[in-house]
Amino acid sequence: MSHNEQAYLDLCQTILQKGNEKSDRTNTGTLSVFGHQMRFSLQEGFPLLTTKRVPFRLIASELIWFLRGDTNIQYLLKNNNNIWNEWAFKKWIESDSYKGPDMHDFGNRSQQDPEFKALYEKEMDNFKAKIIEDDQFAKMFGDLGSVYGQQWRAWKTSQGDTIDQLTQVIEAIKTNPDSRRHIVTAWNPEDVPSNMALPPCHTMFQFYVADGKLSCQLYQRSGDVFLGVPFNIASYALLTHLIAFECNLEVGEFIHTLGDTHIYTNHLQQVNTQLDRTPYSLPKLKINPELTSIFDVEMEDLEIIDYKSHPAIKAPVAV
Q1: Would the annotation count 188 as a binding residue?
Q2: Where are the alpha helices (DSSP H) in 134-249?
Q3: Using CB atoms within 10 A of its CB, is residue 254 exposed (0-12), middle (13-18) or buried (19+)?
């Protein structure tokens, strides 16, 4: 059994046994613990969970989106990635431009009412098609504001300049590997209240170089343990691999530190299903050795090898 995956399964068990019942922004309800840390040895294998299928393609295309500094879901949809749809869709249905049927609280209603679900899916398909085909519509409703990509690559300063945090941290790792300042932050207090579709959950990450290996620690203020955290683990493991590749280093550890660590109450059955499964061995990640810069990475430059998993487990997204 992988110690990496067991760290995640132990977290699920801890929340089920010790979690506090809490209300939340989405009115779904959660079981929550505060302050938890998991460690993943990237030498052991790539931490893509095996107790349910986790789609690496979605993780990779989202990370590429971040690396490019993009904040519009048009790129994601063109790559068949629907991770961020709900937040952009919410922006559209709450605008004066939307003339369709009432879609309020669509996340919960679509789980409870089959007739509404069919209506919602029709509206969502219409929305996605418009985002892909109509650049002006995408500009109006596909952009999520100053989310991760912009904060990583074009942090706005009080002087009106921008800071490319990711480029700077890569250069610092290459030239001053022992620095304690290899930090990228996505939490911009000025943008959080008014200019982000969703305030960043993974707020800050730091790199550490020792023995020729690159490690990364993420601080995540809020973690949806069933749906979101498996993606976050794999995404930051992939980021660590890519930065190590860029800096000619091996990979070390990914350390995942979480604040409000929660399971939504409408995910409890799914979590228990996952806990009943036995993990398989972890897969391996292969990066195209001819890649010259991680900022030019394409999907075909990344490959997951020997990934064996149990089937996917569906659950509603709380928006």
Answers
A1: no
A2: 135-141, 148-153, 165-175, 228-246
A3: buried
Q: Which amino acid is at 89?
A: F
Residue 223 annotated as lining a ligand binding site: yes
Q: Would you say the pTM of this structure is higher than 0.90?
A: yes
Q: What is the DSSP letter of 218?
A: E
Whether 201 is a known active-site residue: answer yes
Residue 112 has pLDDT above 90, yes or no: no
Catalytic residue, from 12, 201, 216, 247: name it: 201
- Over residues 51-73, the pLDDT tens digits come to 999 999 999 999 999 999 999 99
Contact 300, 261 (CB under 8 A): no
**Cα dihedral across residues 103, 107, 112, 113: positive or negative:** positive
Q: Which domains does the chain have, with CATH numbers?
A: 3-70+147-305 (3.30.572.10), 72-144 (no CATH)
User: Does residue 146 have a known ligand-binding role?
Assistant: no
Owner of token pair 């990364």: 216
- Burial of 156 from C-beta contacts in 10 A (0-12 / 13-18 / 19+): middle
pLDDT of 25: 81
Torsion, CA 237, CA 238, CA 244, CA 246, rounded to 10: -160
**181 among annotated binding-site residues:** yes
pLDDT at residue 135, as a whole number: 97
| Residue 150: HSE in the Cβ half-sphere, 13 Å Cα cutoff | 19
